[in-house]
Amino acid sequence: MINTYQIIQKDPEPLIRRLHNHAQNHNSDYYYQIRSQHDLDDRVEIAARFIYLNKTCYNGLWRVNSKGEFNVPIGSYKNPTICQPEVLRACHAALQRVDVRLRDFRKLDAGEDDFIYFDPPYHPLDETSFTSYAKNGFDSRDQEGLRDICLKLDKRGAKVMVSNSDTRLIRDLYRSKDFKIEEVKAPRLVNCKADKRGAVGELIITTY
Ligand SMILES: C[S@@+](CC[C@H](N)C(=O)[O-])C[C@H]1O[C@@H](n2cnc3c(N)ncnc32)[C@H](O)[C@@H]1O
Question: Is 199 in the pocket of ligand 1 (CB under 6 A)?
Fold first, then answer.
């Protein structure tokens, strides 16, 4: 994802050309052929594959196996929008004043006058919920570590916002005078059960 943002930031045109190519060739065999390319070197190719799979896979889901290989089957879209040149060019313009980096959240350094929004892997609503964003996952100790970082940044004078699912663990972690918890209904597309794909309860947690 971060590679994709960096490629769009630098120059979206080679990416747009590659995506046009994916769009022209798109069919089931082609999808599985691109899906199996786990060892690409070229960063534009990697970004194009990321967007192509995201636009054509089942429910736009990102899931990997234990080897870290993307393994979502093809979705049933009649006419998926694979290449949106104007959207990519608009993103390119918007990203010109942005510093896009891949970092562990624990390494974040911020202080007074900073606003930080964390959008972490969500804590599962139940055991069958989809949570594996990465091959090593994001467990309750990571959730606790994130809460501790929020407290640290708050003490340094930063303003912090976190979104997460509305679960007992998350409510317990942030139940303190340092945080304000607000419930919101957020639309969710990524769920295998259509009846659970509607609005779900989420929490917006702030230090201010
Ligand atoms: C809910 S998604 C965020 C999606 C993003 N806001 C967007 O709009 O595309 C959670 C992200 O946290 C990343 N992540 C997992 N562990 C992390 C860690 N230790 N430090 C930083 N990011 C992490 C995952 O790779 C995933 O991309």
Answer: no
What pTM, to 2 d.p., does this model score?
0.82
DSSP track, 104-172 = -GGG----TT-EEEE-PPPPPSSTTS---SSTT---HHHHHHHHHHHHHHHHTT-EEEEEEE--HHHHH
Ligand 1 near 105 CB (within 6 A):
yes
CATH label, 2-97, candidates 3.40.50.1980, 1.10.10.10, 1.10.1020.10, 3.40.50.2000? 1.10.1020.10
- Give the containing element (helix H, strand E) for 10: helix 2-10
CA of 24 to the centre of ligand 1 (A): 31
Please give the pLDDT value at position 195: 55
User: Ligand 1, atom 7: nearest CA belongs to which residue?
Assistant: 119
